[in-house]
Design a protein that fits this description.
Radius of gyration: 10 Å
Strand content: 25-35%
Helix content: 40-55%
Structural class: alpha+beta
Number of strands: 2
Shape: globular
Order of helices and strands: HEEHH
């Protein structure tokens, strides 16, 4: 996920073939304050947040 944060302006997260997030990286992080991109991914895909 570090590479995504370093290189991408927009993030699309897909879970089981469905788009669960499609927005700019700053907006996505603003919607989930205090969480890393990996933690956001885990939350949106139903994986436990570590």
């Amino acid at each position: 996920m570090q590479e995504v944060e370093a290189m991408c302006d927009r993030v699309i997260l897909i879970n089981q073939g469905s788009i669960v997030a499609d927005q700019s990286l700053p907006n996505l992080k603003q919607n989930y304050p205090g969480l890393s991109l990996e933690q956001i991914f885990r939350q949106l895909t139903g994986l436990p947040i570590e």
